[in-house]
Amino acid sequence: MVDLLIIGAGLAGLAAALTAAQAGLRAAIVARGLGALHWSAGTIDLLGYLPGDPKPVSSPLDALTRLPEAHPLRLAGRERITAALAALRAQLDQAGLPYAGAAGDANLLLPSPAGAARPVFLAPVAQLAGRLDDPAPMLIIGFRGVRDFYPTIVAHHLSRQGYRARAHYLPGDLLTDRREANTVQLAQSLEDPKRQEALAQSLRRAVAPGERIGLPALLGLDQHMVVWSRLQEAVGAPIFEIPTLPPSVPGIRLHRALVRRLAAHVPVQTNMSVINFQAEGDRLRWVETESAARPLRHRAEAFLLATGGILGGGFQSDHTGRIWETIFDLPLTAPQGRAGWFRPEFLDPQGHPVFQGGVAVDETFRPAHNGAPLYTNLWAAGSVLAHADPIRERSREGIAIATASAAINAILAQRSQGHAAPLPTTGR
Prior knowledge:
Layout: E1 2-7, H1 11-22, E2 27-30, H2 72-76, H3 78-94, E3 99-100, E4 108-111, E5 117-120, E6 123-124, E7 138-143, H4 151-160, E8 165-170, H5 183-189, H6 193-206, E9 212-216, H7 224-235, E10 239-242, H8 249-262, E11 268-269, E12 274-280, E13 283-289, E14 296-305, E15 315-317, E16 323-325, H9 353-356, E17 368-369, E18 372-373, E19 378-380, H10 390-393, H11 396-416
Parallel strand pairs: 1-2, 1-14, 2-11, 7-8, 7-9, 9-10, 14-19
Antiparallel strand pairs: 3-6, 4-5, 12-13, 13-14, 15-16, 17-18
Helix pairs in contact: 1-8, 1-11, 3-11, 6-7
């Protein structure tokens, strides 16, 4: 039996595990998959857009008071958000994947894979030279035969927004000799020093004085900082990565860095779908995961639900329009009927209700109904939470990190007050 069982291995689950391990809790993670980081840009987006407002948020922390009171970031609060982000940055620094942001808690604007300006709170240092408040012109580099990144589109859209940018193609065999390769394979290929030198020579010929170079995010996987530093030094110009279409190398780097930090402290068990649970009164006793033989039972004093929302697999639906939470069948705020899922306009500035529904929680992030917790030892964090539209708001990572930290702190507070009754260690 462990002190804490975390269900879900996305950013919320991993961040919660790190916080729990630092606090001395015996924690474990069980998860069906690896979460959504492999599809993300690898940045930490705290709050890019307020609901219904098309203008990017300049200062996310200052904008918290403009969010609905039940919004997960509003519940977490400025102080806890700041502390959670600082703790995660420290972990990533120690993992060799440093992140940074703008001065004064402001959002950065960085190029998206389509050349849009995307508001970002923290980014890997290899993306920072692409910040759009820098007036230096950009040379956007692509590689022939490499799909998932189109420099002419990026440069065209940046130019239309008033940023100086031009596109240039290099031969694809600078990266690999494969006829077909995805972004992860290309990133691994660039860890070869010979390929780094060949690429540097081509970039030196292509770049004009005063330009900074935007490359698809392929600069190494496990040796990313070494590859980026060597290439930038060899070329003699600022180099920045632009995320590609998925799979996302920066997102995979982030996931691997967090798992490495957990390796000695918290077991991360994937391919384990939770299929059953038992509660006695208002306390959960165990959950079961599917296995080749009989189900595997996991006992814990506390449980954290971090399985994601409707796009992450934490919720399921059927043809009738019913939506349910897949582990504990917790009540959801999502519309129970397909007619209420979507607004008439696809790009409605208010978003769509189906993506805004989720698990309602109390002030300590325990799933609740009418303000009362459903179980005294169950907490929730991340995109499973109600009253937010994380993808539309560009708040997904911020919500994951802040609410994971807030939930763990609530668990610690409950334990310190003596409310964590020991569970039996025998029997099934």
